[in-house]
């Protein structure tokens, strides 16, 4: 049996967590096994054990990760130490275009994962504050890639 699809979220006020749970429900309805976790509780090196990871990450401060996601994001900053050549991933970045560094945390996560050798399943998708439709389109694309016959 293949490893469950890992759905990770980085959040400060709950939006990314809500979308992560909606993502796992949809994937489970397609017959896929999933594991959902807050990046605050997930050591970055364990990404190397996952086959597929979906990351949903918001941006806080001025282009920073949510406070309890700082450690996870920092661990991805050194591609010499963390190799993720077996990982396929997709990033959904949450933010607000009223900020100068729009979706900065998700953008950097996406770039860092690629530098660590992971393979993008989909191009990064960036959501503004009204994220419902963009999220649904992203989720449809994820399902098309991971469960194309369902
Ligand atoms: C204090 C504060 C700072 C924020 N800073 C940024 C930012 O620098 N860039 C950005 O794109 N969005 C920023 N946002 C918008 C959030 O990323 C956005 O509201 C997101 O949906 C929050 O998701 P969460 O509930 O999962 O944390 C900020 C929001 C707040 C309240």
Question: What tags apply to this protein structure?
Answer:
single chain, 150 residues, alpha/beta, Rossmann fold, six-stranded parallel sheet, 6 strands, 32% helix, globular
Describe this structure in words.
The chain has one domain (5-146): Rossmann fold (3-Layer(aba) Sandwich). It has four helices and six strands. It has helices at 15-29, 70-75, 104-115, 132-146; strands spanning 5-10, 34-38, 52-58, 88-94, 119-120, 125-127. Strands 1, 2, 3, 4, 5 and 6 form a six-stranded parallel sheet that branches. The structure holds flavin mononucleotide (FMN). Flavin mononucleotide binds at residues 11-16, 58-63, 66, 94-96, 99, 101-104, 129.
Provide the succession of SSEs: EHEEHEHEEH
What is the 3D form? globular
- Give the percentage of residues in beta strands: 15-25%
Mean pLDDT: 96
- Helix tally equals 4
Give the CATH class.
Answer: Alpha Beta
- Quickly give the CATH architecture: 3-Layer(aba) Sandwich
CATH topology descriptor = Rossmann fold
Q: In total, how many beta strands?
A: 6
CATH superfamily: Flavodoxin domain
Cα separation of the termini: 18 Å
């Amino acid at each position: 049996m293949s490893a469950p699809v890992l759905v990770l979220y980085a959040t400060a006020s709950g939006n990314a967590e809500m979308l992560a749970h909606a993502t796992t429900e949809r994937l489970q309805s397609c017959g896929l096994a999933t594991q959902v976790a807050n990046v605050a509780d997930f050591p970055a090196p364990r990404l190397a054990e996952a086959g597929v990871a979906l990351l949903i990450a918001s941006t806080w401060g001025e282009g920073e990760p949510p406070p309890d996601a700082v450690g996870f994001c920092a661990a991805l900053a050194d591609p010499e130490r963390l190799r993720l050549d077996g990982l396929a991933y997709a990033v959904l970045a949450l933010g607000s275009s009223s900020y100068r560094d729009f979706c900065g945390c998700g953008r950097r996560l996406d770039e860092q994962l690629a530098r660590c050798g992971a393979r993008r399943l989909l191009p990064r998708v960036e959501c503004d504050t009204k994220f419902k439709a963009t999220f649904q389109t992203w989720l449809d694309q994820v399902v098309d890639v991971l469960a194309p016959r369902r």
